[in-house]
Each structure stands twice: as structure tokens, then as C-alpha cells.
Hints:
The protein is an alpha+beta fold. The chain has 10 helices and 5 strands. Strand 1 and strand 2 form a beta hairpin. It starts with a helix and ends with a helix.
Amino acid sequence: MKKIVTGIICFLLFFTLVAPLSFAQETSTVYEGTVTQVKGNSNVTVQIATGPHKGKSFQINTNTAQTVQKVQYSKGDEVIVSFSKGPGGKDAVYVVDFVRNKQLLLLLFLFAAAVFYIGRWKGLTSFVGMIFSFMIIGNFIIPQILLGNDPVLITLIGALFMTPIIFYLGHGINKKTTVALIGTFLSLIVTGLLAYLFVFFSHLTGFSAEEASYLQLIKGGAVNIRSLLLAGIIIGALGVLDDTTISQAALVEKLKETNKNFHTKELYKHSMEVGRDHIASLVNTLVLVYTGAALPLFLLFYSSQQSFTTVVNQEVIATEIVRTLVASIGIILAVPLTTFIACLFYKD
């Protein structure tokens, strides 16, 4: 019966959220094309494949782009071409980047195949839950933030709406999932409070990211960049909390099934023995993930030969430290919180 209910939810979510998905009409002068000829290291001929210039060929000097490393193009490469009006109203044509649609679709197909083949029914429902998460982020959270609404409030509302759906889709409608859901919400509250306190007391503005400055310029100051930083920390923690809370809830459930004579205190003690191993692996995982994402940044500061104190006080580094440690604390606290709640749910 639960599978039938879950299947109906998947069906409705797909056709109410994914099927109507539409994107804004292309208003920019950016089109796709194919390199048909290469002369030297910087002159290429590109045949346009989309838009009003479809079928036309243009000779383009790729050295006009102000980039650190010059990209070498080969015959047959699919590229993105930008058109703009130059002096005298003439079209100025530039090669912006490679077209990567096919490669990304192939990777997505491999991901979906692995999820469906290994995860079977749960893989299918989890995949639908992932799509649902993207829909909430793309159709609610991002538009509302761009309208000038508080990013933290919007993110929490979005999380409150999407988390139960993705949890029940991925793990079934049962007591274990409910326990994990409660543990996730409590941990998310703690993470949000910690993020607010340390972002405020560390005087982080959110402008350490170059994208934040561009966003502020484009939106005319309508977006609260500091709140946007907080919202990013909350979303990042939410992605890992799913694994943590479900694992602990499932552990308590199995221990209780194995020995129904366990009292609440004993059940908590034995569950936390395994939970501590989970914490150890989570800490290493989070630190390595955030370090990997910011590796070029760390290399840049290391190469500058500045002192450790100078480096960590740079906002761009301090932001990554706060982001990593706050998310880690919230996820670590999720282990005892979820374990305690699960023990209460499974007590005699």
C-alpha cells in the first residue's frame, strides 16, 4: 500500500512540476555554432547552428577575449558564439565557450542509470525527490530571493516544504523517516542559529565571492548578500543531514528489532557507539569536500607567502572556515539529537 501511495506521489509530482517546466524565451544574442576551419592559433571560422544567423559562417579572432589562458579550438568543436553591436552598428562576434550539452546529458544519464539499477524502487523515488528539490529551488527560492525577499526566511520556507517530500519519497512513509525528519529540522535550526551568530560576530559580509558583487550590481542592492551567505550554509547542511539522520534512525530501529529488551538508555548508549564512528567519518568528509572546492583559493594564498594570521583573517578564507565548521557542528549535533528522538519513538 505504501508503495502505491509513493508511486502516486511520484506521478503527481512529475506531471505537476516537471512536465510544465518551461524556461524564459532566449533574449540574449548568444547562439550555438560549429568550428569549420582553424587558421593559426587564434583565427577560426564558425558556422552558426541556431538563431537568425543559422547557416551563416563568421571568421572570429579568439584572442580578443581577455582571459588568462587562451583556449585552442579544433575543427568540429561545438561552441557558443556571442553577437554584440560594435562601432558603426556592425556585429562584433566572439567565441564565448564550448557547448557541453551532450557531455552533461551523458553524465546525467549515467547517474540516473546507476541510481535506477542499484537503487531500484528507492532509487526511482529518490531521483524524483531530487527533481522536486531542484524545482523548489529554481521556481521558488531563487525567484523569491531575486525579488528582494530575505534569503534565510525563503530558504527555511523552501526547506520546510521540500524536506518532508524528498524524505518520504526516498525512504518511505514510516516511523524511521519521521524520526529522521524531526532530527533534521532540529539540527537545521541549530545550524541556522550558529551560522547567524558567527557570520555576524565574524563581520562577514558575503561579498568575498565575486558573484555576490555582480549580483548586487545587477539587482541594484535588492538582495541581502549577508543573508544569502547564511542561506547557502543552511542549504549545504541540509544536503548532508539527510544521510546523517536517516542512518541514525535506521540504526536505532535495527538495534531495537534485534533486542526488544533494550531500555531507552541502553538503546541510546549502543546507538551512539556507532554514531560516533559516523561523526568521525562525517568530519573528514566535510573538511575534504570544502577544501577541495576552495583548493585554488588556498593555493593562491599559500603562494603569496603571507602569514597564517593574515590569511585566515581574509574574508574569503574566513567565510570558508565558518561555512565548514558551522555545517560540521550542525551535522555532528544531528547524531545525538536524532538518536535521542528515535529512542523515544522506539521505546516500549
